[in-house]
Design goal:
The structure is a homodimer of 466-residue chains. The first copy, chain A, is an alpha/beta fold. In chain A, 36% of the residues lie in helices and 21% in strands. A 5-stranded antiparallel β-sheet of chain A has the order 5-14-15-16-17, covered by helices on one side. Chains A, B: It comes from Nostoc punctiforme (strain ATCC 29133 / PCC 73102).
C-alpha cells in the first residue's frame, strides 16, 4: 500500500491553525508535525487546508434520476410521485451511485451511507450494482438496503384506529433473507464496503421486520439505519400504531444503540431526545430535504445540548436536489440560529466540521478509526485549495468553507490512503463518460402528473387538516 | 452596438419549454421564434437554457473582506464586530466590488444593488471606485450609498423611553450633499450605472435624513432602498422611537413607493404587509443572512399572498458568506415550506425565477425594460450549460437550476446586449489577477476579539431577555 507525505499543509489546531507535514503510511496517519522526513510520494500542501473526510450519512443514490423535477409536495405525496416515476434498471442504479459518489467526494465527503432503494425482484442485483459502483470510485460505502414490509399507503395516518392495508409484495422473511445474503456477499469492512440493516422506518415496517434486523445486526456486527419522524404525519401515525411515540417504541423493541443512525428526527419531544442520548443513537440531519418537503426544522441545538451525536446527510437528490455535502453542512448549521435567540448555543464552523466528520464516524461505530486527523487513524482525507475565488480573501479557512458557498475547492481526496481525487478531478472513473451516460439516458421534461398523488391527495389533506 | 442571434436555445414557455432562436439587435431583444434568420454573430444555444438575468437586489460589496471570519452573533453584535475590523481603503473597495460582480454574474445575476459602505471622509471616492469596478466588469449597477446620521449604539433598543446617543460624525445636510453630488457625477441609467437614495434604516436614521432622501428621489427620479425590520431588536426599537411600527412610520413620512426596495422585512405584522402591498413597495429577501444572524424567517408566503412584490438578495458577504445568487434563490424558496403546511402556497422553481428576474426589475422601476425574455426589452441575459454534471440527468432544467446546487453552469452573460461572460469566464476583467490581489491583501486568521462587542454585549443580552 502506498505511503506519502503532505508537506506544509494548514490544519486546524485547537482554536487556531498550524502548518505541518502529514505522513501517511500503509493507509493510516503515521505522523503530524512540522518538518517531518519525507516518506513516499510528496504532496504539496502549500495554500491548502487538510481536513478529515466528511460523511454523507444519509442518501438514496437512485433519486438522482428525478432530481429537479419532483413537484413541491410534502413527503407523503412526494413519495407517491417518486414511486410513480421510478422504474429503475440496474444500469441506472450504477450510474446514479457513481454520480452520488462523485458529488459527495467533490464536496468533502469520503463516506456515503446509501439507503438504497431496491428494484423489486432484483434486490441482490441492486446491492451488487451499487457495491460495484462505489468500489470503482473508491469512496467508503455504507450500503443500507431500504426495506419495508408494508405498502406505501400504510405510511399515511388513517385518521382512525382501524388500520388495514394491502399486503406488501414480499414477505418479511424473504426480505430478511435478502439482507443476510447481501451481508455474506458484500459486507467487507476492511475493503471499505459495509452493509447495514436499514428498515425504512416505523411508517412502513412491522415489528417483525425490526426484530429481524436487530438479530442480523447483532449476529453480523452490522450498523443500523432508519428514517425517524421526518414529518408530522409520521408523528400522528406512531400514536395510531403504537399508542406511544416512535422513539419510545424503537427503544422498547431494542433498535436504538450506539451504532444506530436515524435520519431526520424532526418531530421528537424532550423525552424522546433523552432516549436518544441514553441509547447513544446518532441523528443524521438532512436540512435541505426537511425544508424542501416542508417537514420542519429538526431540533438540532436541543440534541447537542442533550449530548446526542449529530451528523449530516444530503438525503436523496430528489428532495435536495443535489448531493453537495458542504451545502448540507452550511444549511444544517445556520438554519438553527433562528430556533434559539441565544447565540451562545449556535453551531460554529469548527463544530460543524466535527459533526460532519467525527459525528459520522461515531454513528457508524468507527470513531476509533475515522473522523479526525489523528495519528493511527485511517487516512480518509480531503485537501482544499484555499486559492479558489470562493475562499478568498483569506480569512478563517474553515469559516469560509462551512459558511461560504465553495465551488470546485476540493483538490485531493484519499480514502484509506488511496488517492481518488487529484487536481480537483476524480481519478478512478471517467466523469465525462458518466456525464454523457446521464445525458443520453434522460430527457428534458416538465412537471408530470402522478396518478397516485391524485388518488391519495384528498385523504392526505383531510387527515392533515388542510 | 453589436447584434447577435442565439440559435436552438431552450427557453421557458408557459408551463413547458421551447427550443427557439433569439435575435438581439442593438442591445435589445428583437425576436424570439424558431428558425429566425441570423442577424450578427451566431451563438450556439444547443443544450443550453436562456433566462433573463437575475438581480442581486441587496448586498454590501466590501463585506467580502470579512466573509468566513465573523463570529456567530446576532445582527446588532455582529455589526459591532464588523465595524471594529473594517478599516477599508479604496483599493479594497475596488477589489471587493469586482469580486461581488464576478460571483453575481457566475450565479446568474446581471444586476447588483450595492448598499455601499462609505469610507468616512472618502465618501465620493468610495462611490467613484465602486462605479469604476462595476463599469469595468460590465454588470448593471445600482449603487445605493449606505447613509445614516445616528451612531451605531442608537440601533439597539435602550429598554427605556429616553434615548440619547453620541452624535454621528457627519451632519445630515452634509450627508445629503454627498448623495446629490454622487447623483450628478455617477447616475447614468443609460450606461448601466444608477445611484439610489439608501438610508441604512429606521434604526440609524433621523426623519430629516429620510425626508432629504425622499426629496432627492423625487427630484432626480431615483429609486429608494433601505433595510427594514431585519431583527426583533429593530421591531422593539421602532416602538421606542415612534410609538408605532417601522412600516407605519415609513408610510407616514412618504418613503414607501413603487420604486422602494426594502431589504429583509422579517418582523412585519399583517397590517404592515397590507401597507407594503398598498404602496407597491418591494421586499428584498435575504434568506442566508437572516439565518446566519438568527434574524428569523421573513414571511415571504404571506407577502406573495398579499400581492407584495418580492425579489432576492445575497446581502453582504460577511453574513452569507458568499455572493452566490442561485444559493439565495434556492434557500429563499424552500425555506418557506416549513412556515405553511399547505404546499399549494409553496414557491415553485418557475415562480422563484420570476421573483429573481422580473421581481427585481419591478422593484427598481424597470419592469418595462428588464426582467423577462420579451421582445423589446433590453438584453440582460444568462445562458446556462445544461450538460454540467450538477444539472444532470436531464429532468426539468429550471427545477435543477433552482433546487439543485449548480456548479459552474453559467456559460454566457450579456448585459444590455454586451457579452461579459463567455465559456464560463468573465471576459471583461482578469479574474486570476483579482484572485491574486485578494490573496495578497489578506491572511489566514482565526477569531478576533471585538472590543465593541465586549462593551455592548451585556446590555444587549439584558434588553433582549437573554
Amino acid at each position: 500500500m502506498v505511503s506519502f507525505t503532505i508537506q506544509n499543509v494548514l490544519i486546524a489546531a485547537s482554536d487556531d491553525y498550524a502548518t505541518v507535514d502529514v505522513q501517511i503510511v500503509d493507509g493510516a496517519i503515521a505522523a503530524i508535525a512540522p518538518n517531518l522526513p519525507v516518506i513516499g510520494t510528496v504532496i504539496d500542501g502549500k495554500n491548502k487546508l487538510l481536513l478529515p473526510g466528511f460523511f454523507n450519512a444519509h442518501t438514496h443514490s437512485s433519486e438522482m434520476w428525478q432530481r429537479g423535477i419532483m413537484s413541491v409536495l410534502p413527503l407523503e405525496l412526494w413519495l407517491a410521485e417518486l414511486y410513480d416515476f421510478a422504474p429503475l434498471d440496474t444500469e441506472q442504479v450504477y450510474l446514479s451511485a457513481l454520480g452520488t459518489a462523485v458529488e459527495t467526494l467533490l464536496s468533502g465527503g469520503t463516506s456515503v451511507v446509501d439507503h438504497l432503494v431496491l428494484i423489486p425482484g432484483l434486490e441482490l442485483e441492486t446491492i451488487a450494482t451499487a457495491t460495484r459502483a462505489y468500489r470503482e470510485v473508491g469512496i467508503r460505502a455504507f450500503i443500507a438496503p431500504l426495506i419495508q414490509d408494508e405498502s406505501l399507503s400504510a405510511g399515511i395516518p388513517s385518521g382512525e384506529s382501524a388500520r388495514t392495508h394491502e399486503p406488501y409484495h414480499r414477505s418479511t422473511a424473504a426480505t430478511l433473507e435478502i439482507i443476510e445474503e447481501a451481508v455474506r456477499q458484500f459486507h467487507r469492512p476492511d475493503e471499505g464496503v459495509n452493509i447495514l440493516v436499514a428498515p425504512t422506518g416505523i411508517q412502513l415496517c412491522s415489528n417483525a421486520l425490526f426484530a429481524g434486523c436487530i438479530e442480523l445486526s447483532d449476529r453480523y456486527n452490522l450498523c443500523r439505519h432508519s428514517h425517524l419522524l421526518e414529518t408530522r404525519a409520521q408523528e400522528k401515525l406512531a400514536q395510531e400504531k403504537y399508542g406511544c411515540t416512535a422513539v419510545e417504541h424503537l427503544k422498547r423493541i431494542g433498535f436504538l444503540s450506539d451504532r444506530t443512525t436515524l435520519a431526520h428526527c424532526v418531530w421528537l419531544n424532550d423525552a424522546d431526545i433523552a432516549i436518544l442520548a441514553e441509547t447513544q443513537s446518532t441523528v443524521v440531519h438532512n436540512p435541505l430535504s426537511n425544508l424542501r418537503l416542508g417537514s420542519g426544522i429538526a431540533p438540532i441545538l436541543k440534541y447537542r445540548q442533550a449530548g446526542v451525536n449529530v451528523t449530516f446527510g444530503c438525503d436523496g437528490a430528489s428532495s435536495n436536489d443535489s448531493q453537495d455535502l458542504l451545502e448540507a453542512i452550511k444549511m444544517g448549521s445556520i438554519l438553527h440560529n433562528i430556533t434559539d435567540s441565544d447565540y451562545q448555543h449556535w453551531i460554529t464552523p469548527r463544530q460543524a466540521v466535527e459533526m460532519a466528520s467525527l459525528g459520522g464516524a461515531k454513528g457508524l461505530n468507527l470513531a476509533d478509526n475515522l473522523g479526525s486527523l489523528s495519528v493511527g487513524k485511517q487516512a480518509d482525507l480531503v485537501l482544499y485549495d484555499l486559492t479558489n475565488l470562493s475562499l478568498l480573501p483569506r480569512t478563517d479557512p474553515i469559516g469560509l468553507l462551512v459558511l461560504g458557498r465553495p465551488n470546485n475547492v476540493v483538490d485531493s481526496v484519499w480514502v484509506n490512503g488511496k488517492q481518488i481525487v487529484a487536481d480537483g478531478k476524480v481519478t478512478t472513473i471517467n466523469v465525462d463518460e458518466l456525464r454523457q451516460e446521464l445525458f443520453n439516458r434522460s430527457q428534458w421534461e416538465t412537471k408530470r402528473k402522478s396518478e397516485t398523488v391524485a388518488q391519495i391527495e384528498a385523504h392526505y389533506r383531510t387527515v392533515m387538516g388542510l
